[in-house]
Amino acid sequence: METVLPLPFLVSVAIPPGLAKLDGLNREEVSILASPFLEATPKILDKLSRFFKRHSSEFHAHIDATTLDSTDDVYALLDGGARTAFVAPESLSQYAELGARVLPAVSKLDLSAASEHGLLIKDFDPTAANVDKFAEEARAKKLKVLYLKPVLEVAIDQFIQVAQKCNAIPILPSTGLTTDKSDSSKLLLSKVIATYWKSDRADGLIPTVVTDVHGIALGLAYTSEESILEALRTQTGVYQSRKRGLWVKGATSGDTQELVRIALDCDNDTLKFVVQQKGRFCHLEQFGCFGELTGIARLEQTLKSRKESAPAGSYTARLFSDEKLLRAKIMEEAEELCDAKTPQEIAFEAADLIYFALTRAVGAGVGVADIAASLDAKGLKVKRRTGDAKGKWAEKEGIKPSAPAAPAKPVEAEKPKSDRIVMQRIDSANATEAELLETLKRPSQKSPDAILKIVTPIIDDVRKNGDKAVLSYTHKFEKATSLTSPVLKAPFPKELMELSPETIKAIDVSFENIRKFHAAQKDDKTLQVETMPGVVCSRFSRPIERVGLYVPGGTAVLPSTALMLGVPAMVAGCKKIVLASPPRADGSVTPEIVYAAHKVGAESIVLAGGAQAVAAMAYGTESVSKVDKILGPGNQFVTAAKMHVSNDTNAGVSIDMPAGPSEVLVIADKDANPAFVASDLLSQAEHGVDSQVILIAVDLTEEQLKAIEDEVHNQALALPRVDIVRGSIAHSVSVLVKTIDEAMRISNEYAPEHLILQIKDAPKVVDLVMNAGSVFIGEWTPESVGDYSAGVNHSLPTYGFAKQYSGVNLGSFQKHITSSNLTAEGLRNVGGAVMQLAKVEELEAHRRAVEIRIKHMDGQK
Fold first, then answer.
1. Helix (H, G, I), strand (E, B) or coil at 538
2. Matching CATH topology for 424-439+660-806 and 448-655?
């Protein structure tokens, strides 16, 4: 299990460590492990608040916040220092801006409830009959992180084994762990840690990097299961000597260590001991085995030494004793730093300021580690200050603080008051335009800058290292470590396309309908216009020669996307069609996608996903063909990668459109069937918690609107992905309007990916549609027919981009070329205008290109 946690497990405690006596592990032992799991309830919120004020930097706490009703309470816990909070899936959308800091939690074996960042499953029973099947599904799902919290009275060793099979982080009850060898009723903590580490040594010892609290490496030692148990029990530096057995650091020299934290590295083959070192670590006359301290750590050591026994007349001793002098020097050096200009001056003045600031800190008993902990705590804040300068300092720099007027309280959408799965309501007649648009805002997505920081290094790596880089990312992200080539070339083996007759028929029917509709879009005839006598302008289409089609995959099966992209490319006549789809863990691609690739005549399938697949197609590698255009949907990272390569002139590649979470807008009047309306809303809500569905109710009574809401609730409860639906519906809206015209005005402003017209005389209203990806007309046209088999394309603009972009169509795989053909008469007719405009723009060569020809004609007379 790969994890960024200090250790690949959490330890659950009933009450925050330090606020009560713990059964099993004590407070110090939990502190060394660093990652407690706590259950937040309204009754202990004050205790948790006090706990985080004192220990936020000491503990990487994970909080079960599913019983908290207030989002403010969850924000306060995260602001106070909790690393991760777990909430009910239906509440997740309220924390979208916090990303991986907030994860969904469920109490059943339902992996579909996971967000892109992970999932917690509570009340997990490792003895349940369906655990093996769940473990297989969990490994295939490849969640970013899966936490498992067991039922009460669980056998911890058995639970750990099952969690490892699930590739999950187990949450172990502290009451079942101990460091006391005589307590046979509990599992030794040392045995748990040793379960996860990997040693390639014959004696089973594991290398241990020892650092001080600043993160400075002191030296290398070795650890055994016996030595780590003693280290945990005594909270001191105890190691395993390869010659002398247990080695208690400082037992003879007096240079002892207080054990602060332990951690395993990312490969679980090296331990790290973080210690408070007394004296020095090395047997030579130096602080650590790699040499003396430098920089700020060395300054801190010097200041502490001066504080204890400063030489007579020492300037530092004077600073410790003269508070006013120290205060004056800090302000003096701060001003000199602000006035510094060159890099050398800034470095010099910053060093002076750090010296005096650290003198102030050490004088008050504050060390660099305390300052670092405070910085880390600030980095965990989720509530941001305005950052304005304070009074006298602002005045000194000429900054005039202005208190902003309190904004008028907007009309808010009416939110549901129960656990029913029901959309918010807003009446357009009682809301301003600004309030209506605010309510219809899509769920926020991760900052583009943050995503680019992740995808850009991947793109650069693939561009530089080709196949090797693509394979390494496929091994890392898809766990397909058996792959030795990143490409599957056509012709594809029949055994990779073994499907049931029913599936083959469904794909063939969809293929033919998509082909018919896109073939009808062909414009084989050259457009030709004589704009004036002798001047003929033409336009003709040609296929884009090489196209790359991104098909999301991995554990999902999406042959429909392969068809929606591949069939138009085939119809357009693209010479080279390259598909890219992430493989499964065994290195294979789903047979449905291979069959679709075969049907459309694809040259190859790139066995990769994400930014690495986009980069491989954009730049080409030893095995992956470079393409001229990349099309297809994907998550935020795929979209960011597509945008990035399309802006790189060296790539010479274009893309179809930006993409976002799926969405639908349904316009329904009193003639609409409530069950049909609800089913259309839910068909998009089940895509993900960041999907949004909008209902525009045209002149419906309360009874008619409630009938739709009842259908939404009842149908949702019957869906396997009900928890995801809850999350989506939580930020979805019903808008009440009086007329069709008002409904269409709002729809065109929203510009939905899918627009469904469940209204009387629906075909007549299509003329009012200005902005939409695809329109579904009338009660017998569910959106799902467009997703699969009707013939229209399902790769559509989302997030309001339907105002500027079309969905994928035949034209997406073509470019239009224009031509001009002039006779001598034609050049005479248009030449005067050309020469005059060239003269106005001062482009003399342009003007002469016409003039020379006309003079040549005149000379032949």
1. strand
2. yes
pTM: 0.55
Listed in sequence order, the residues at least 6 apart from 180 whose beta carbon sits closer than 8 Å to its beta carbon are 186, 233
> H helices of 340-384, where?
343-363, 368-379
State how beta strands 102-106 and 84-87 pair. parallel
pLDDT tens figures, 459-518: 999 999 999 999 999 998 888 888 999 999 999 999 999 999 999 999 999 999 999 999
Helix (H, G, I), strand (E, B) or coil at 843: coil
Cβ count near 529 (within 10 Å): 9
Cβ-in-10-Å burial (0-12, 13-18, 19+) of 573 comes to middle
The DSSP code for 98 is G
CB 416 within 8 A of CB 422: yes
Tell me if residue 455 falls in helix, strand or coil. Answer: helix
Q: Which CATH number fits domain 295-379: 2.40.340.10, 1.20.1250.20, 1.10.287.1080, 1.20.1730.10?
A: 1.10.287.1080
Reported CATH class of domain 424-439+660-806: alpha beta
| pLDDT average, residue stretch 678-691 | 89
pLDDT digit string, tens, across residues 526-537: 999 999 999 999
The CATH number of domain 448-655 is 3.30.565.10: no
The CATH superfamily assigned to 206-277 is: Phosphoribosyl-AMP cyclohydrolase (3.10.20.810)
What is the Cα–Cα distance from 501 to 248, expressed in whole angstroms?
Answer: 70
**Among 679-688, 832-841, 843-852, which is the least confidently predicted range?**
679-688
Which is nearest to 628 in space by CA: 564, 569, 563?
569
764 contacts: CB under 8 Å, gap ≥ 6: none
Q: Which residues participate in catalysis according to the annotation?
A: 753-754
Q: State the residue for tokens 């407690």.
A: 36
Whether the CB-CB separation of 281 and 287 falls below 8 Å is answered with yes
Computed over every residue of the chain, the mean pLDDT equals: 88
CATH dotted code for 10-196: 3.20.20.70
**Using CA of residue 56, residue 59, residue 62, residue 68, what is the dihedral sign?**
negative
